[in-house]
Design brief:
The protein is an alpha/beta fold. Helices cover about 45% and strands about 15% of the residues.
């Protein structure tokens, strides 16, 4: 059945805005928006529940453009629907400080649910949105009160499906039965290099059927077929749905449609003129949309009605379940309970008083067990390493297809796990944490970067933090990973030295609302460090003086994690020899450097240039603190396979080497 002319004309508004904006910017991707315009028109005008006047309405449907290079599709939809995205914003596409960046950037404009561009992560984020919706509904919905009830829609392309992260995330989505996740695959057969059949011959339908997805095939330019497929997908509540839409990239461009020429470059002035004629677009001026089309697209009145109806439902819910309503409101706001900080401090003080010598991964598990009852929004998980990461706790309940739980068994899916967690955080109502060995952070690296870029509270638990994991050898022994994490903007890396610093790290991570945190934890037991109450309060500053100098200050030893023990041993030896040396424990350098200058100077006096840093990781990072005339005890190569003690001796990461380094400087 052909698409009715009025619907095609409404869809053509997307095509016009996309090709005009890309042409003006002389940069961008017009092909995908032009090819997917008919799908978008049906979804956004007939099915999507949203309110342009309130882009953060809690029960809105979520829309993700996973093939984010087609960003003008989303910008056109937001503009036409009535969001705070003006025609001048469209004209400013890809320019400095524009709301309309080259790829959709979360936080730049209302209605952009997630940052997309690195292909495959958008669909993984969408899995996170759907997982959060299903889990939150299971926790809060009551009979006759479906207060959490919305869909997640995702557009994706060939590139998203070629990226391995899509397999990780979509496989888990099918296992968890995320029936409110509906994805539309832009099956246009074209990527940057040309026709994809030469390098992408998968049977996508069979692939997704094997994941336990419902699969529907349609003509992506037939509005009635798209509508019926969407109705069918919404009716399937136990499986996610993939609607495979056969489309023509750059549809409407007489000489470039169906070709890679329309994928990632402007069509050109002459071709745009021809395209306007092909589309029957009477107005020949760039960026001009008729009042009639704006009226057809305007979703503000409908959106206001939808939100008002939900608000009325929520008022009824509050009357019937006041405690649950208050808790849901708190969690959706992202605010922690008022008494959390005080109760966390009580736990930290108890750790100090108990003085256990245990691995920091075990100390982390103890912290989770203490904080999870205080924060039911914690939604944890591990990539098939729960027993090694120690991320399960006694009262944890696995999230299965029934959804009502607080712990996700992600399987061996580090990248998918982290990208899904980003979606969970973006959805709201949860604080997600993930877990794996620090070495396998590398598989998840780009998703960690994305959580930092999007300013999301995601906590990464990375255990087996150094050559100290021993016999598994250099493939499993992280060397450069901590430095890489520390150098990531808007990201905090904590490497605690004992139970107390671990508890503080967890507290601060949970309180850090606009950035992710990585907790770097040991496999081996670490000795408890004695502290005064004053020192205890300073841990949150990222670094503090753990052991003071005797007499005049001559040298400073900076250490983190397991190497704090070595620093303390060296401190004793040097002090007995009459050397005035202090030990600075620096569990989080990124927090420390943001302290006021007076505090930094009190910890690391600038006049003291004799400085030694010790950490069982790459040495280069630490020269920013010790200076080029200081010394760093650490790794300059990959590790080896042997017991931990033998490895530390072999690589010279010992108290004796720290003593030698200090003496050589003074």
């Amino acid at each position: 059945m052909p698409t009715p002319l009025n619907q095609r004309h409404n869809a053509n508004a997307i095509r016009i805005l996309a090709m005009d904006a890309v042409q003006k910017a002389n940069s961008g991707h017009p092909g995908a928006p032009m090819g997917m315009a008919d799908i978008a028109e049906v979804l956004w005008r007939e099915f999507l529940n949203h309110n342009p006047a309130n882009a953060k309405w809690a029960n809105r449907d979520r829309f993700v453009l996973s093939n984010g290079h087609g960003s003008m599709l989303l910008y056109a939809l937001l503009h036409l629907s009535g969001y705070d995205l003006s025609i001048d914003d469209i004209k400013n596409f890809r320019q400095l400080h524009a709301k309309t960046a080259g790829h959709p950037e979360h936080g730049y404009a209302d209605g952009i649910e997630t940052t997309t561009g690195p292909l495959g992560q958008g669909i993984a984020n969408a899995v996170g949105f759907a997982l959060a919706e299903k889990t939150l509904a299971a926790q809060f919905n009551k009979p006759n009160h479906d207060i959490i009830d919305h869909h997640t829609y995702c557009f994706l392309g060939d590139g998203c499906l070629m990226e391995g992260v899509s397999h990780e995330a979509c496989s888990l989505a099918g296992t968890l039965g995320l029936g409110k996740l509906i994805a539309y695959y832009d099956d246009n057969g074209i990527s940057i290099d040309g026709e994809v059949e030469g390098w992408f011959s998968d049977d996508t339908a069979k692939r997704f059927e094997s994941y336990n997805w419902q699969v529907i095939r349609v003509d992506g330019h037939d509005a009635d077929a798209i509508r019926q497929a969407t109705i069918e997908a919404r009716a399937e509540t136990t499986r996610p749905s993939l609607i495979i839409c056969k489309t023509i990239i750059g549809l409407g461009s007489p000489n470039k449609q169906g070709k890679e020429d329309s994928h990632g470059a402007p069509l050109g002035v002459d071709e745009i003129t021809l395209t306007r004629g092909e589309l029957g677009w009477a107005n020949g001026n760039a960026f001009e949309i008729s009042d009639e089309i704006y009226a057809a697209w305007d979703a503000k009145a409908k959106g206001s009605e939808l939100e008002s109806a939900w608000n009325a439902k929520f008022d009824d819910y509050k009357k019937a379940y006041p405690a649950e309503a208050a808790e849901l409101s708190r969690r959706l706001s992202g605010e922690l309970p008022e008494d959390f900080a005080a109760k966390a401090d009580d736990f930290i003080k108890a750790c100090q008083d108990k003085g256990e010598t245990i691995a920091t991964r075990k100390a982390s598990q103890n912290a989770i067990a203490a904080f999870a009852p205080l924060l039911p929004e914690i939604l944890g998980g591990s990539a098939d390493l729960a027993g090694s990461n120690l991320t399960l706790w006694k009262d944890a309940k696995s999230v299965q297809a029934h959804a009502n739980g607080n712990y996700i068994h992600y399987g061996v899916r580090e990248f998918g796990m982290t990208a899904i967690a980003n979606g969970v955080a973006l959805h709201g109502g949860f604080i997600p944490y993930t877990a794996t060995f620090l070495m396998f952070m590398e598989y998840a690296r780009n998703a960690v970067r994305m959580s930092a870029l999007m300013k999301q509270r995601v906590i990464n638990v990375y255990t087996h933090d150094s050559i100290g994991l021993g016999e598994d050898g250099p493939t499993h022994q992280p060397v450069e990973q901590i430095a890489s994490l520390r150098q990531t903007p808007n990201h905090y890396t904590w490497r605690p030295c004992d139970t107390v610093e671990t508890a503080v790290a967890w507290k601060v991570a949970l309180q850090t609302a606009n950035a992710p945190t990585s907790l770097i934890l040991s496999r081996q037991n670490l000795a408890h460090q004695s502290r005064s109450d004053e020192q205890l309060a300073l841990i949150e500053k990222g670094a503090y003086v753990l052991a003071k100098e005797q007499g005049d200050l001559q040298a400073i030893i900076i250490a983190t994690g397991s190497e704090v023990e070595l620093a303390m041993s060296a401190h004793q030896t040097l002090s007995e020899a009459g050397v005035g040396v202090r030990v600075v424990s620096m569990p989080c350098a990124e927090v420390f450097v943001k302290q006021d200058k007076d505090y930094i100077e009190s910890v690391l006096p600038s006049v003291v240039r004799s400085r030694v840093a010790v950490e069982a990781g790459i040495v280069d990072y630490w020269y920013k603190f010790v200076g080029l005339d200081g010394k760093v005890i650490g790794m300059t190569t990959f590790g080896e396979s042997a017991p931990a003690k033998d490895l530390f001796n072999h690589f010279g990461i010992t108290a004796e080497k720290v003593v030698e380094a200090v003496k050589s400087l003074i």
